[in-house]
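Researcher: I'm comparing several assemblies side by side, and this is the next one on my list. It has 513 residues spread over two chains. Same procedure as the others: predict the full complex and return the structure.
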Amino acid sequence: MIQLPCPWCGPRNASEFAHRGEVVPRPDVATASITEWRRYLYFRRNALGWVTETWYHAAGCRRFFTVERNTQTNEARLAPRPEPEPAPRSEDAR
Amino acid sequence: MMTKPSRYSAFSLLRHGIGHSGWPRAWRSHPLKPSYDVVIIGGGVHGLAAAYYLAVNHGIRDVAVLDKSYLGSGGSGRNTAILRSNYLTPEGVRFYDRSMRLYRHLASDLNFNVMFSRRGHLTLAHNDGSLRTMRWRAEVNKLQGVDSEVIGPGEIKKLVPHLDTSAGARYPILGALYHPPGGIIRHDAVVWGYARAADANGVHLHQDTEVTGIETRDGRVTGVRTTRGDISTPAVLNCTAGWSTLISDMAGVDLPVTTSPLQAAVTEPVRPFLDAVVVSGTLHVYVSQTDRGELVFGASVDPFTSYSMRGSLEFAEGLAGHVLELMPALSRMRLLRQWAGLCDMTPDFSPIMGPTPVDGFYVDVGWGTYGFKAGPVSGEAMADCIAHQRPPEIISAFGLDRFTEGRLVGEKGAAAVGH
C-alpha cells in the first residue's frame, strides 16, 4: 500500500486519507464570472508526474495537509508549505 | 505490404485448421503516410470503431489509427467485458441501447466471432434508497423500450442460487434491477474484429506509434507529430481514455477529466455455475463467469487520481471480502491474477463527445468506468460527427460545452459503480 506523510501523524497508509485533489487557487466568489467559477469547479490539469495536492487525514488527525505526489509512481513527499489552500469542493471525496 | 486478408468462413476454418498452416494475418501493416484525411489517436474499441464506421458508413477511407502500444492495450483489453443498457437518464439509456443493438449483430457485420453471451444482468439493492433508484431506472428503461424490471429476493435466488439472500446478511439483498438483455462479450475479439474490418476497408493501423505533438494554426488542426514521423491532417480524434488530457493538452484544449485506476481480478476456472452478471453498488463489486469458467471481478475506481497501473494487495483483500459477502460458497476459490486500467473520470459520470474549441480536433473521452460497452455506438456517432462536422442528435447532450454552460448530465446513480 502506498503511504502518505501526514505532517502531524507521520507516514500512514493511503487508506486512512481522503484525496481532495490538486491545489488550485479558489476564485473570489464576489468577483468571479460564472465561466471562471465553472472552470474552477470542473476543469482539472490531471498532470502526469509531480503534482501538489490536498489530502485529508480522515481516519487520523482529521486535518488537511499538502503533499507532492508523483501521479506516475505514487511516490509522495511533504510539500514545503504545510498549511493548505482551501480544498476544492467539487471533488467527490468518497 | 500484404494483400487484403480473405473473409473467414467455415470452409476457411477447416482448410487452415487441418495442419495449422497458412493462417492469414488479421490486418496489414503500412508505412506511415505524410498525410491522412482523418487521424485517430488511440487504437482501442472506440478509435477502431470510429475508423470502421468512417470507412463503411461515410466512405472516408483515408484514415490512420495510431496507438503508442499494441491495439487494445488500454482500457479495451482491461475492462470486465460487461454489456448493458439500463442507465438512469433517457439520454444514457437511448445511447447504450443503440450500442447493445450494434453489439448483437456485430459478429456478422465484422465477419469476426466476438462471442457475445446474453446472460441477464442483476444490480442488487441492499437498502431502501437503492431500491427506490432501481424502480426509477426500471421505469425510465421501460419508457425507452429497454427490458428492465425490479425483482425480489425469491426470484433473485432462482436466477443465482449461490447468492446469500438471507435476511441476516451484513448487507441483506432487498431486491434487484433485472435486465435480461445484459451479458458479456470477448473484449479482445471486439478490438480485433473492428481492426480487421477497418483494415479491410482501407484504414491504416499504426501500432507502436506514439503521438508527441499536435500542430494547430489559426485555431485549426493542421497535423500530428509522432515517434515515426509527422502527418498533416485536417481532422484529429482523441480516443485515449486515461491519457486523454495529455493528448488534449497538445492541442491546447482543457478537459474536465481526471485519471484514476480501476482494478479487476480473475479466478481459476471452474465448472459453469453462474449464468447472470451480478453487480452490487453498495459493495463496489461485480461478478460474472466467462465462457472458460473463470470468475471475473471488478470494482470501482481507486479513491485518488493516478496514472499508475500497479495492482494493490488491499484491493484484492477488499474485493475478496465483498465477493464472499455475496457468495460465501466461493471462499476456497483462488485468484489467478489482478490488473488495473486507467479511467478518465468526468464530474457528471458521462462522456465528452464531439468538437472542441480547436477546429478539427474532436474528442471521444471521459468514459470513466463504462467505455467498453459504448464502443460501437461511440464509433458510429463520432464517425458521423467528423463526416458532417457537427454532432449527431444521439450525442448532443454530451458536448464539452456543457461544463462551461452548466448543463451536466446526471448519470452518477447508474454509472459510478454499476457494471
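Model: For your comparison table: The interface with chain A takes residues 245-246, 254-259, 303-308, 310, 312-314, 347, 403-404, 406 of chain B (CB under 8 Å).
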